Amino acid sequence: MTAVQPDEDDEPAVVRTDDEWRAQLSAREFAVLRRGGTERPWSGRYVDTKAAGAYLCRGCGQEVFRARTKFESATGWASFYAPSSAAHVQLRPDASGRFPRIAVRCSACHGHLGHVYGDAPQTPTGDRYSINSAAVRFVPS
C-alpha cells in the first residue's frame, strides 16, 4: 500500500466556499466530498460499472481512477487496486469510524473519495480503494 501522507496543512489547488460547493454538488455529493460521508453499500451508481474509461473527481474533474484497475470486491462500493496516478490522490489517517482507516482524497480539491484497505491479495497491488460513486464521475472511453 502507498504510504500514508502526514495530515499537513497544505492548501488545495481548487478552493471554493461551502456555498460554492453546494451550488455545484448535490446534497449527497456534498456530504461525501466535502464532509467525509460514506454511501450505503450497494447504493452507488458505479458499483457494477464495467465499461472502459476514467473516473474523475466530481468536485474538480481531476482523473483519479481508470476502469482497467477496477475489480469486483463484493463489498458494495466501486473498488480499484490503484489510482490513475499516485499524485492525483492523497492518503490520510482517518479515525472518524469504529476503527482507524486510511482516507483517500483528491489531491487537487481535497474532496473525500473513500478509503483504502490492504485486503485485496487477488490484485496486483494488494490494495482495495473503496470509492463512493457520489465522489466521482465516470467518463467512458
From TrEMBL:
SUPFAM superfamilies: Mss4-like (SSF51316). Pfam families: SelR. Coiled coil: none annotated. GO terms for cellular component: cytoplasm. GO terms for molecular function: peptide-methionine (R)-S-oxide reductase activity. Its EC number is 1.8.4.12. Keywords: Oxidoreductase. It comes from the Bacteria. It is an enzyme of class 1 (oxidoreductase). One of its GO terms (biological process) is protein repair. Gene3D superfamilies: Peptide methionine sulfoxide reductase (2.170.150.20). Residues 18-141 form the MsrB domain. It catalyses: L-methionyl-[protein] + [thioredoxin]-disulfide + H2O = L-methionyl-(R)-S-oxide-[protein] + [thioredoxin]-dithiol. This is peptide-methionine (R)-S-oxide reductase. The lineage of its organism: Bacteria, Bacillati, Actinomycetota, Actinomycetes, Geodermatophilales.
